[in-house]
């Protein structure tokens, strides 16, 4: 699954540098140890520093407010993974609605819940509202590698064992979307 390999590469970057970016120029900057990006605005030069709000608002973690850390990147990664698993969107609004539905109540297209349940469960873990309850980049990378190398039926059982649901917060029952488990 190409999307899973792309996610694995991004998680390696998060784990190593604490910042996620698919942009080649940013990757080169990170390798040189540069954490700032300059952009010209009129005659002024502005610099974005580690921890400053950057990126696309549609992928921003709910905590926002200048927090650009591993946990915010994990949240954004869940939304990116959702997009990778969806068929091509026919309109911009379809994409926006899919992302918003997932952010608000973990709703995902039926084919993901039916045929990609382990990936759906991973996305739910990554998109928890409270940053401290999201997995680390290392934990997500481990699960992604397992999902890419394990048959789907075994991956679902292993992922459920890895997820400690007992002390994790969840959305209120009225807004929660339960995954549909396909018959065995």
UniProtKB/TrEMBL annotation:
InterPro entries reported for this sequence: CC_SR_Kinase, Kinase-like_dom_sf, Prot_kinase_dom
Cellular component terms per the entry's GO annotation: cytoplasm; nucleus
Molecular function terms from GO: ATP binding; eukaryotic translation initiation factor 2alpha kinase activity
SUPFAM superfamilies, alphabetized: Protein kinase-like (PK-like) (SSF56112)
Enzyme Commission identifier(s): 2.7.11.1
Segments forming domain Protein kinase: 1-159
Enzyme class: transferase
Record keywords, A-Z: ATP-binding, Kinase, Nucleotide-binding, Protein synthesis inhibitor, Serine/threonine-protein kinase, Transferase
Keyword Transcription regulation on entry: no
Record flagged with keyword Thylakoid: no
One Gene Ontology biological process: negative regulation of translation
Protein name, as recorded: non-specific serine/threonine protein kinase
